[in-house]
Amino acid sequence: MSDVFAVDLALDLSPNLPDAVLAHLRRHLEGDSTDDGSGEVDWPDFVPLLGDRGPASHIGGLLTGRLVQAPGHWSLTARQEIHAELLPELVALAEMLAFNARTDGVIGQVRFCEDEIPELLINRSGTLVKMPLREANPSSIPLGCCLVCDSTHAGCGTSYS
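The structure corresponding to this sequence follows.
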């Protein structure tokens, strides 16, 4: 049994990202443990969480991470495998990202590699909210009930028969 989690992040960050936050994020992305001026050289146990590239060992597909300065904001996308012992560091990074995110809403997800259902990472006014999803029970949905508007879909046009 593996103790690996699949992590996906996709969000836009403030155009006024503080230099220290930018340096910290770049350090995670570049997989570099040397001093980058962020003051983290004193953290000998620092592990870059977004620095792996190439084929994933446990979750399939590719591991990636990229930060790009776009007009009016920074865009971040990352897909990584994170070991369970690094989850507290991941939460701290996600909290920093949520605080600096440009918009509210889903900024990523975390999924234990042997599970099918992830936990969403949501930015709510600069605060990270972790929302576990659950498996839908189709037998509990009445026939004719709409999954989109949670009624008999009068007006949404969806039909489940």
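The chain has a mean pLDDT of 85.
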